[in-house]
Amino acid sequence: MNGGASAALGALPVVATVIGDPAGIGPEVCAKALALDRDPRSARHLLIGSIDAVRLAVAASGIACQAYPVRSPGDIDDAADGIAVLDPGNLPRVAWSVGQAGAASGRAVIEWIEIAEGLARDGQIQAWIMAPVDSSSLKLSGKVESIDDLQPEGTYLLRVSPSLRVVPITEHIAISAVPASVNASSISRLIEVVDDSFQRWGVPDARIGVAGLNPHAMGMEEAAEIAPAIERARAAGRRVEGPVSPDSIFRLAIEGRYDVVVSMYHDQGQIALKTAAFEGACTIYVGLDYVRLTVPHGSAMEIAGKGVAQHASMAAAMRMAESLCCGKGFGDGPP
């Protein structure tokens, strides 16, 4: 963490990051993001997870930074040029191996997430980030079936890259189930939640573009479901346009016409976003009273412990969390 700005950090919000699967690259990208980004920060930072994993990652990466333990966010030493780690002691070092998925790691990650959620609900932290978790470890834990189970009920996933912001009305459902999921009530709710969240984050009067489902936005769903939802949002004073042809709306957003695109299904937006930019992207959970983010890549067990993982996405997530919880928007203006 940047010690140069320590004198000004006392009253700043706290951003916590769950290190993800300790056997993967999560601890490494967390440590690198904090140690290598030397610009002054607008929040204090805390890692939640195994301090052993963080120390191994620091050593493997060759970064000049030390991890020190804390018992609560209030114990962060603003004067320390190091990384504060809240380790609940639920994962003995002998219970996991770098580069290998395991049940103990999966159980520990779930408990670390529960700790972060509790701190956020209690107001002890103002934002938290989930580093890469491993689906195999989660399944082995016996506590969850998939990563999708970690998404809080009633939330949506807003993907943000340096040039594009997209949020779908559904996540991982089969293409055959998509048309039935496109209905006026779900679209209306998503527009409302997104607009309210943007206002709270410091982006008033967000320009929302709504994609069509069918080629050129010319189909039954556009007329019967999407257009009525847009009209309802406009009547409520929201700045919404659409349905816009899916083959052009993402280009228009990149050019600055929209602050965010509402897409009709997961891959419709993800293909555009990952093509436009991947490194530096992050995901924001929309619909919570606090800021919660994650990064759009996996635990990469095959390169864990080698010190070669890119940390750009984690660094972007940390900066984004700082900006959002301070009500400063996305930190970069419109895409």
Architecture (CATH level 2) name of the largest domain: 3-Layer(aba) Sandwich
Helix content: 25-40%
CATH homologous superfamily of the largest domain - what is it?
A: Isopropylmalate Dehydrogenase
Based on CA inertia axes, which overall geometry fits? globular
Strand order within the widest beta sheet: 3-4-2-1-5-12-11-6-7-10-8-9
How far apart the termini lie comes to 28 Å
Which runs of at least 5 residues are low in confidence (pLDDT < 50)? 1-10
Provide the CATH top-level class of the largest domain: Alpha Beta
The CATH topology name of the largest domain reads Isopropylmalate Dehydrogenase
Q: What is the number of E strands?
A: 12
Broad structural category:
alpha/beta
What is the number of independent domains? 2
Rounded mean pLDDT score: 91
Rounded to the nearest angstrom, the radius of gyration is 20 Å
How does this model look, in words?
There is one protein chain. The protein has two domains: 3-153 and 279-325, Isopropylmalate Dehydrogenase (3-Layer(aba) Sandwich); 163-273, no CATH class. 35% of the residues lie in helices and 16% in strands. The protein is built from ten helices and twelve strands. It starts with 13 loop residues before the first strand and ends in a 10-residue tail after the last helix.
